[in-house]
Amino acid sequence: MVGRLAADSIERRSGVSLWRQIADKILQAIAIGDFTENAALPPEVALAERYGVNRHTVRSAIAALVQEGVLRAEQGRGTFVLSRKRLSYPIGARTRFSTGLQGQTSERHIVLLASSIEPASQRVAEGLGLARGAEVIRLETRGEADGRPVSRAAGWFDARRFAGIDAAMAETGSITASLARFGIDDYLRQSTVLSARHADAADLADLDLQPGAIVLVTVAVNVTPDGQPIQFSESRFPAERVELKLSAL
Amino acid sequence: MVGRLAADSIERRSGVSLWRQIADKILQAIAIGDFTENAALPPEVALAERYGVNRHTVRSAIAALVQEGVLRAEQGRGTFVLSRKRLSYPIGARTRFSTGLQGQTSERHIVLLASSIEPASQRVAEGLGLARGAEVIRLETRGEADGRPVSRAAGWFDARRFAGIDAAMAETGSITASLARFGIDDYLRQSTVLSARHADAADLADLDLQPGAIVLVTVAVNVTPDGQPIQFSESRFPAERVELKLSAL
DNA sequence: TAAATTTGTCTATTGATATAGACAACTATA
DNA sequence: TATAGTTGTCTATATCAATAGACAAATTTA
């Protein structure tokens, strides 16, 4: 089934280099739990044989993962798994950043990277039920768990209703707490649309990824319990570090 | 924003070739609605300039998408968009294949590709609440909409409780209808875990993809209204043709 | 009809990717 | 202390990916 390391399947002249494909497979095997932390990877020659490629090609894949901080290679001994399994990020009616990751990480927080006021684009206006061009506040945030970026999000709010939410966010470091200042005690996830793509230059910088990585993208609308839209957001998650757990369905 | 064609961001020596990255971006722009059906793409020289690559590199990307049936190039005239937007596949408490795609496609159905009886693997046993190694029935299916594959799934059922569900599935072409024969009138999605990866050889064949494509993967458990697990499943969706809409949370 | 625009084809060159083989350096173990 | 097993480095070669330039072929527009 999905991505056991035993899998055959390497595609030539696909536009994705063999070393990147093999790196992907190793990452997947780790995420799935085929290798626990500190476990030794099979030796390079064995991997090369398994995938039907040259040993040097396997070495390129391993070099990329060492660079990425996932593996550690020791001459004469072997190559070992450093990283933990993927975080399981919950998405449901009451998705909240920090509560969802409890138990999986010792530390997590949201950093406000930037904020601005801008006219609403077509899709933001639709999501928030505003006229196109109406003023909205945009908050750019990054979610971090144990010091590693696990999400990068842009959130839009009606500028008239939520004037000053940028300052509140900077102060509290929490969307939930910031909304509470505007009398929003509870909010629900109304809709979420999910897609995946290759990371672009912005993703690489924002999420500290290596080129060629895959990102999961969610576009969501949060509403008050009576259905009034309050937040439109687009979030990006590194597929190699995060899986999305759809809960409370 | 996500993948406006205006975006800069092409990564060199990433292990993903420039032509594949550009093909991805064009696909995304189409999916997002930047190009409607039959619309003309910008000329090759303009695309080359926009992405900062040679015209021949853009041509490689276009050639791949022509091969894929997404674009049509006409000498002297231009390059045109053939394919429709991505399907929006709903996932929620009551996810059903054919009801969910109503209105988006004129035709849709599930094909039973294979079935077998096998001992439950660790994760299947966990999902179904069975002992590891207990007999389970595996159904391999493909979802098609307007003749194009939009999903590829494996579903596992307790072999004792659902003996003969493979025949029922072959006959009815519907999981819901097959379960009804065993007295299951209603079932709910208990959990869904979502990830993304590069397509492997099996995905390419199963979903009729070109090498280098991305697949979304869901692993889910369906339960009866009183919480009894009845189905464990793993589904793969071509990210270029399908987005997942998380609904009714 | 002429000019401008656009895709198609060809040649040539450079750099990244992948293969092949040999051997050094380091570690663990018989 | 050999020996086997493993990662690290080097050279060489072939193929793919990307750049560069020129011109042909088809279509649209002035």
Automatic annotation (TrEMBL), chains A, B:
Pfam families: GntR (PF00392), UTRA (PF07702). Residues 16-84 form the HTH gntR-type domain. Keywords: DNA-binding, Transcription, Transcription regulation. GO terms for molecular function: DNA binding; DNA-binding transcription factor activity. One of its GO terms (biological process) is negative regulation of DNA-templated transcription. The keyword DNA-binding applies. CDD domains: WHTH_GntR. PANTHER family: MANNOSYL-D-GLYCERATE TRANSPORT/METABOLISM SYSTEM REPRESSOR MNGR-RELATED, MANNOSYL-D-GLYCERATE TRANSPORT_METABOLISM SYSTEM REPRESSOR MNGR-RELATED. This is GntR family transcriptional regulator.
